[in-house]
């Protein structure tokens, strides 16, 4: 029979689907599924718990479903009228109560974890970071440390970090999947969230709320350093902020001149300069240009020549730079280092 | 005073369609509009999938992509599936309750034209400087400030405002129809489930759409008059928009799914030849879902920063919806249990609905866990969830309903072989497209991204997903062919091709303009089945054959909608033109039409008993 | 269709020809309630902090008066009117609670 | 057709509900008012959320002129009473009285509208424009929506009065009068809350509610 074949096919595909679910959880590179901090771990626990319950319920539904479809399909020549059943109170109560109980099993840890994650850490133990999202870049300020940076977030490993997030223009969302779930950055309002990286390492951050043309490209990087390395970094950053390296030689000096003329209105180096664009004090040490392209001479030059090509709709204008100006700027920008 | 015509005004062709107030014709108009926009939204979806087929593809530009997703979401929800739902409601609900007409035929037509012209207005943005690109959720400040968004967003605001108005009055029409127009004996607890779910859906429309109206007014005032509702620099608060949008938006998704639940209930019961298992608990569950639907909206806002109390309260309230929905799933299974199941195309879609919707519902419950949602939110996991419930639930349900009621609406059966091809291509394509998206989401792919970078392990999933859409397109095309084949076919469907149970099958297909020559007397749940079991050929009439009063057709609904359509452009371009004159003129024109409507009473016309006999209709 | 419906035909004098009195009473009550509310805000007769709940309760009482008496919502045949207004009000209540507690 | 028979014969007790059309109209209108409740409720919720956000502009406390508001309240309340009288006259099939009471209702409504326009005019002169602050936007939108309803009601009822001069009181016109009366009462009910939430609470000022 054709319909039996179809049925088997469907069952098979369901089983395959389930297998995919089960193996999918164990894959190494799934960011939200490979937690690197306590927040992500607690969230993963809830994800696994609810998935397990759901798969269980789904199996029950599917078993009844398959049985019914195979057993009760109309056979050729079958006539007569099946018994008209009005209902069955016992069964109906059963499938009201059991789902209800399952929901309670999910609700209890949900409440506990939700409140735990909403705790605020305003003490000195936790590093405080003010995050401001812009179309399409991230600004990070460490108010207690007197440090300001952009695009690459540096945090100490093994310590709680308290973020105060807001936005300068539209809603974005601050998301580092491996460390924990996201929080919206709302213009005019400040949200709080804490995260912790268990081990030093590099993690990826994303903007998760539609914020304009280049929403997809609004990535950032997170460097978790050993506590001592972090303190060292903060000290040097602070020093550089107060007195940015004024020495530039050769082409870099030319670049510096151009920069002072055309760029300083938007970009600060140290504490000097505008705030419309990312602070570039330690730009030479960033791994990425604009959060997405490798920070090498070629990609940086591409960026400077036509920022709109790389990130459509971003607010850095095309300044119509000549090739030699660009290479001078590249030289200069790459010389902006703090820790070496 | 008594200058009413006693003959049906002779109207034909386009003029007939532009002026009709017959709910069955309006139903067809809704289907045409919905079908058109479904193709449009589907083509937009195909472009989305094309752009995401491999990393860093360059088929469409970043800005265009955002226009595509916004228009895809808006078109599909407001202009494709809502009209198809309204189409089926119009075609079937009055028949199911034994009514000659809806309560407000004129308003019914007005509702359609408002929805259609609102949708048209929105879509003309493609040619007038760009479509809206702020997502179908249009979060402020992206949407509220001209600095961040184009004129397209004004089209969104005005288009949805006009279409929403149409939906609202349509909802009121159905509420009154179902409350006041039921045939004798058709008590509430004998109403078929499709009618019940239409009733609850209409109630949700009544209480949800005004919130959208207000939200859109705020957005319009911010954009056009420089108001400060969502301007943080002047004390505004962007979260207000999120609240208002979802106070509307969440009930909206139940507005969509409840009619599908109703369809599944009818189809499953007919094709297993059994009465619906647990009818009263089904009714109860429908009402409960509608009720709970109003207090869970903030589950779309878990990451907004409402705090743990609000998050957990709304999260748990959301989970509770699993209970009444589960009741439905199990009742359907038990309806099939012990039946003689016929796998017609309608039933294939209905049966296919069950596992697919269950998956979508389950991911919904997973999303309702706030801390976990911090990870899922705005990722492809959410996209997978809502396409499972919308495409795998609602669209399957609508296809089931279309195959089931097509003979009643058009008098011809859709071809079953083509129907099976339609089902299988669409079903397989659907799962291919959306199943991998769950994993893409968990692997950290945010939604609404115009591209993704290579090396994040997202290639495979996206490729499969993009291939799957071909299956759905194929299915849709087969369905289109099927319609043509059915229209060409000579074979009439007959009154009751499925050996079905409810009232609409007691009358000819397609139903005559007066529906029931004599109002039927309803003597039990599944009115027609009750008579069949009692050995009767058809329904017992509740009244003698007499002259039937019909409402006159009118061009005013179209003109009133046209006035608002023009006013829409007036508001959108007020800034550029430096004048509100067009907006005011458009509204004035609409008001004038309203006045005309009030001054010239519609006395309608009568169909006399001999005409009924003449048309060969035996009651 | 414009048929005189069943219960219109079999009507006994069902509606008590409603007198003027309840309407006048509602009018006077509305005025008095308004004045009380005004007094409560203008002079500090109510302990601070209770004024707002107090005047809101007065407004609800006044609205109920008008809905029930002036708009006849208490009468038979208004079942769905009641359902409509009560449901609408419930939606509004949830909305206002959410706005007051979760914004800012 | 009942409409025709009814014209010159006795009208039933509640002419607005004598026909199925009439019943439908009344029920549909009640449901519509349920929707309007949500509409105004959303406006109220937003106003409550934004009422302290004056952005350096004038606040409610500095601005409101309670004398005007008190008069406006009185006018609208009275007009609601006169529209009750109109509905009662409708039940007594007294067209002249219906028209008379409705004319008074419309005049009172016009008085209300005039005061409101004067009030807005006055505030704009005190530097409170639509664009001044979130408070001003939500104030003008909420109160303006209500005012727009009043204006629409005035036009509507006026139209009905004129229409009834020609058509008289029939089972076709009766539901129109009845429904317009419901609308007018509803506007009055909304005003009760505007008076309380916008004006009285505005006078208290500050963060009186959480
Ligand atoms: C038809 C449309 C529809 C339907 C029916 C649903 C149904 C549900 N939805 Fe869905 N949802 C959407 C359309 C829909 N949704 C859309 C469009 C969005 C995204 C909008 C956007 O952002 O663009 C969304 C987003 C969305 C979110 C926000 C995600 C986010 O953005 O972060 C959440 C969170 O709670 C959610 C939850 C639910 C739940 C719990 C249900 C429940 O109703 C499901 C209930 C069903 C079942 C549970 C299955 C059957 C039950 C049983 C077999 C019984 C036993 C079960 C258990 C014990 C669990 N949905
Ligand atoms: C009713 C609602 C509905 C429906 C039916 C669909 C249907 C589909 N959706 Fe939809 N989708 C949404 C509602 C819906 N969607 C919403 C609300 C969003 C969120 C938007 C936002 O973020 O703001 C979204 C977002 C969304 C995304 C995410 C975009 C992003 O976040 O970047 C994707 C990506 O794959 C997608 C794909 C699809 C596909 C492949 C279908 C397919 O099922 C479509 C199948 C149909 C066809 C393929 C058409 C077939 C017709 C033809 C081929 C023409 C034939 C010609 C003739 C017959 C003449 N949708
Ligand atoms: Cu910023 Cu998306
Ligand atoms: Cu929802």
Question: What does this protein look like?
Answer:
The complex is a heterotetramer of chains A (about 350), B (about 625), C (about 100) and D (about 210). Chain A is an alpha+beta fold. Chain A has a five-stranded mixed sheet with strand order 3-2-1-5-8. A five-stranded mixed sheet of chain A has the order 4-10-9-6-7. A two-stranded antiparallel sheet of chain A has the order 11-12. In chain A, strand 6 (about 170-175) and strand 7 form a beta hairpin. Chain A is about 40% helix and about 20% strand. Chain B is mainly α and about 625 residues long. Chain B has one domain (about 15-220, about 245-530, about 545-555, about 600-610): Cytochrome C Oxidase, Chain A (Up-down Bundle). Chain B has 20 helices and four strands. Chain B has helices at about 15-20, 25-50, 60-95, 105-125, 150-180, 195-225, 240-270, 280-290, 310-320, 320-335, 345-365, 370-375, 380-410, 415-440, 460-490, 525-535, 555-570, 575, 580-600, 610-615; strands at about 520, 540, 550, 605. In chain B, helix 6 (about 195-225) runs parallel beside helix 8 (about 280-290) and helix 14 (about 415-440) runs antiparallel to helix 15 (about 460-490). Chain B is globular, with a radius of gyration of 24 Å. In chain C, helix 2 packs antiparallel against helix 3. Chain C has two domains: about 20-70; about 75-105. Residues about 1-15 of chain C have low confidence and may be disordered. With about 100 residues, chain C is mostly helical. Chain D is built from seven helices and no strands. Mean pLDDT of chain D is about 85; it is low at about 1-10. Chain D has one domain: Cytochrome c oxidase, subunit III, four-helix bundle (Four Helix Bundle (Hemerythrin (Met), subunit A)), CATH 1.20.120. The chains are: A alpha+beta (about 350), B mainly alpha (about 625), C mainly alpha (about 100), D mainly alpha (about 210). Chains in contact: A-B, B-C, B-D, C-D. At the A-B interface, helix 1, helix 2, helix 3, strand 7 and strand 9 of A face helix 3, helix 8, helix 9, helix 10 and helix 11 of B. One heme-A sits at the interface of chains B and A.
The major beta sheet of chain D can be summarized as: none
Characterize the biggest β-sheet of chain A: 5 strands, mixed
What bound compounds does this protein have?
A: heme-A, dinuclear copper ion, copper (II) ion
Helical percent range of chain A?
40-55%
Q: Could you name the CATH topology of chain D? A: Four Helix Bundle (Hemerythrin (Met), subunit A)
Write down the Rg of chain A: 28 Å
Strand content of chain D: under 5%
Work out the helicity level of chain D.
over 70%
In the predicted model, the low-confidence regions of chain A spanning at least 5 consecutive residues are 1-9, 15-30
Give the name of the CATH superfamily of the largest domain in chain A: Cupredoxins -  blue copper proteins
CATH architecture of chain D: Up-down Bundle
Distance between the termini of chain D: 59 Å
End-to-end Cα distance of chain A: 76 Å
For CATH, the homologous superfamily of chain D is named as: Cytochrome c oxidase, subunit III, four-helix bundle
Assembly state of the chains shown: heterotetramer
**Major β-sheet strand ordering of chain A:** 3-2-1-5-8
């Amino acid at each position: 029979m054709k319909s039996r074949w179809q049925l088997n096919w469907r069952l098979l595909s369901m089983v395959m689907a389930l297998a995919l679910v089960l193996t999918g959880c164990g894959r190494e590179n799934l960011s939200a599924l490979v937690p690197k901090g306590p927040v992500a771990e607690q969230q993963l626990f809830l994800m696994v718990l609810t998935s397990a319950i759901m798969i269980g319920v789904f199996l029950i539904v599917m078993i009844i479903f398959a049985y019914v479809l195979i057993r009760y399909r109309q056979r050729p020549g079958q006539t007569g009228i099946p018994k008209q059943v009005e209902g069955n109170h016992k069964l109906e109560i059963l499938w009201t109560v059991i789902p209800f109980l399952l929901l309670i099993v999910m609700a209890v840890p949900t409440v506990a974890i939700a409140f735990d994650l909403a705790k605020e850490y305003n003490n000195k133990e936790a590093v405080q970071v003010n995050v401001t999202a812009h179309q399409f870049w991230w600004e990070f300020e460490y108010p207690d440390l007197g440090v300001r940076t952009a695009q690459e977030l540096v945090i100490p490993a093994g310590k709680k970090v308290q973020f105060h997030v807001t936005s300068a223009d539209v809603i974005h969302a601050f998301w580092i999947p491996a460390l924990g779930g996201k929080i919206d950055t709302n213009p005019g309002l400040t949200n709080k969230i804490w995260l912790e990286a268990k081990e030093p390492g590099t993690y990826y951050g994303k903007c998760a709320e539609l914020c304009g043309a280049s929403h997809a490209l609004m990535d950032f990087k997170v460097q978790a350093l050993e506590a001592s390395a972090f303190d060292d970094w903060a000290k040097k950053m602070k020093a550089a902020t107060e007195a940015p390296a004024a020495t530039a030689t050769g082409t870099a000096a030319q670049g510096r001149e151009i920069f002072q003329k055309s760029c300083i209105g938007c970009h600060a180096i140290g504490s000097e300069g505008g705030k419309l664009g990312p602070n570039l004090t330690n730009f030479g040490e960033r791994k990425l240009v604009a959060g997405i392209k490798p920070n090498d001479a070629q990609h940086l030059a591409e960026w400077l020549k036509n920022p709109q090509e790389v990130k459509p709709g971003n607010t850095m204008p095309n300044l119509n730079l000549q090739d030699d100006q660009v290479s001078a700027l590249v030289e200069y920008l790459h010389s902006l280092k703090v820790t070496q | 005073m008594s200058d009413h015509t006693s003959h049906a005004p002779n109207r034909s062709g386009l003029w007939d369609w532009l002026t009709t107030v017959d709910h069955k014709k309006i139903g067809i108009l809704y289907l045409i509009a919905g079908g058109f926009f479904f193709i449009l939204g589907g083509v937009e979806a195909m472009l989305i999938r094309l752009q995401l087929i491999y990393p860093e593809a360059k088929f469409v530009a970043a800005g265009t992509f955002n226009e595509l997703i916004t228009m895809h979401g808006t078109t599909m929800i407001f202009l494709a599936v809502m009209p198809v739902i309204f189409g089926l409601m119009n075609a079937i609900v009055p028949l199911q309750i034994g009514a000659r007409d809806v309560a407000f035929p004129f308003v019914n037509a007005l509702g359609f034209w408002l929805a259609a012209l609102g949708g048209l207005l929105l879509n003309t943005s493609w040619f007038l400087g760009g479509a809206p690109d702020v997502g179908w959720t249009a979060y402020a400040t992206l949407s509220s400030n001209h600095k961040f968004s184009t004129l397209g967003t004004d089209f969104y605001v005005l288009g949805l405002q006009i279409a929403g108005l149409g939906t609202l009055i349509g909802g009121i029409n159905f509420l009154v129809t179902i409350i006041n127009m039921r045939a004798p004996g058709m008590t509430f607890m004998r109403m078929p489930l499709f009618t019940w779910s239409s009733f609850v859906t209409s109630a949700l429309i009544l209480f949800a759409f005004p919130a959208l109206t207000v939200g859109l007014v705020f957005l319009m005032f911010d954009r056009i008059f420089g108001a400060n509702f969502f301007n943080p620099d002047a004390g505004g608060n962007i979260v207000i928009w999120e609240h208002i949008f979802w106070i509307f938006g969440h009930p909206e998704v139940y507005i969509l799914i409840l009619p599908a639940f109703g369809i599944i209930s009818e189809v499953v019961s007919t094709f297993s030849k059994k009465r619906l298992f647990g009818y009263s608990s089904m009714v109860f569950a429908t009402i409960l879902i509608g009720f709970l639907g109003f207090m869970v909206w903030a589950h779309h806002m878990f990451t907004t920063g409402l705090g743990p109390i609000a998050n957990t309260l709304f999260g748990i309230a959301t989970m509770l919806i699993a209970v009444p929905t589960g009741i439905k799933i199990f009742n359907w299974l038990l309806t099939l249990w012990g039946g003689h199941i016929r796998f017609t195309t309608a039933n294939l879609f209905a049966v296919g609905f069950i596992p697919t919707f269950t998956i979508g519902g389950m991911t919904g419950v997973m999303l309702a866990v706030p801390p976990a949602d911090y990870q899922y939110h705005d990722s492809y996991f959410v996209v997978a969830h809502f396409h499972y419930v919308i495409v795998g639930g609602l669209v399957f349900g609508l296809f089931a309903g279309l195959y089931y009621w097509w003979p009643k609406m058009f008098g011809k059966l859709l071809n079953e072989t083509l129907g099976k091809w339609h089902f299988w291509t669409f079903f397989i394509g659907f799962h291919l497209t959306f199943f991998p998206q769950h994993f893409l989401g968990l692997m950290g792919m945010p939604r609404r991204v115009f591209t993704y970078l290579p090396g994040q392990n997202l290639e495979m999933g996206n490729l499969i997903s993009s291939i799957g859409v071909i299956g759905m397109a194929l299915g849709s095309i087969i369905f289109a062919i099927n319609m043509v084949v059915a229209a060409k076919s000579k074979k009439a469907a007959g009154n009751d091709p499925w050996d079905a149970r409810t009232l609409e099958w007691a009358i000819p297909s397609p139903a005559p303009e007066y529906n029931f020559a004599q109002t039927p007397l309803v003597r039990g749940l599944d009115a027609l089945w009750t008579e069949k079991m009692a050995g009767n050929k058809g329904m017992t009439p509740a009244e003698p054959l007499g002259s039937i009063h019909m409402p006159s057709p009118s061009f005013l609904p179209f003109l009133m909608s046209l006035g608002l359509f023009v006013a829409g452009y007036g508001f959108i371009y007020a800034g550029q033109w430096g004048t509100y004159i067009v907006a005011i003129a458009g509204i004035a024109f609409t008001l004038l039409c309203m006045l005309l409507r009030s001054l010239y009473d519609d006395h309608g016309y009568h169909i006399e008993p001999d005409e009924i006999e003449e048309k060969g209709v035996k009651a | 269709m414009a048929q005189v419906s069943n219960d219109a035909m079999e009507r006994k004098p069902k509606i008590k020809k409603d007198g003027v009195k309840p309407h006048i009473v509602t009018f006077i009550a509305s005025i008095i309630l308004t004045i009380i509310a005004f007094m409560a805000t203008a002079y500090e007769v109510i302990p601070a902090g209770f004024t707002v709940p107090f005047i809101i309760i007065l407004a609800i009482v006044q609205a109920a008066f008008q809905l029930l008496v002036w708009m006849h919502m208490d009468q038979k045949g208004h079942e769905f009117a009641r359902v409509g207004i009560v449901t609408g009000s419930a939606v509004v209540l949830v909305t206002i609670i959410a706005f007051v507690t979760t914004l800012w | 057709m009942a409409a025709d028979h009814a014209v010159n014969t006795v009208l039933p007790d509640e002419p607005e509900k004598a026909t199925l059309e009439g019943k439908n109209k009344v029920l549909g209108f009640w449901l519509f008012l349920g929707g309007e409740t949500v509409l105004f409720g959303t406006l109220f919720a937003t106003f409550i959320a934004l009422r302290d956000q004056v952005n350096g502009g004038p606040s409610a406390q500095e601005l409101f002129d309670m004398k005007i508001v008190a008069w406006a309240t009185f006018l609208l309340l009275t007009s609601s009473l006169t529209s009750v009288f109109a509905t009662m006259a409708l039940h007594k099939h007294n067209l002249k009285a219906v028209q008379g009471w409705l004319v008074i209702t419309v005049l009172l409504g016009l008085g209300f509208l005039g005061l409101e326009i004067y009030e807005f005019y006055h505030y704009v002169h005190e530097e409170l424009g639509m664009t001044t602050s979130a408070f001003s936007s939500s104030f003008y939108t909420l109160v303006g929506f209500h005012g727009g309803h009043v204006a629409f009601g005035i036009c509507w009822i006026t139209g009905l009065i004129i229409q009834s001069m020609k058509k008289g009181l029939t089972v076709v016109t009766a539901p129109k009068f009845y429904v317009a009366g419901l609308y007018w009462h509803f506007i009055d009910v909304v005003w009760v809350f505007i008076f309380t939430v916008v004006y009285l609470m505005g006078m208290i000022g500050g963060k009186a509610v959480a």
